[in-house]
Amino acid sequence: MTKDKHNDQVMNTPKVEALSILANQSQLPSTSSVENIFYFLFGASLIGVLILFFKKKP
User: Fold this and answer.
1) What range(s) does the Gram-positive cocci surface proteins LPxTG domain occupy (predicted)?
2) pTM passes above 0.70
């Protein structure tokens, strides 16, 4: 599975499901360090977007 296809899949799933998918994949011993960094950055950006979203609310 390519990274682009995976990104499309994650974007199309609900946030909770996407987070559980990320959590499950980060626990797999077969993931490379590059993939772990990719998932970490993806999760961090999700959290950052959520924080910005809630900060904009009055």
Assistant:
1) 24-57
2) no
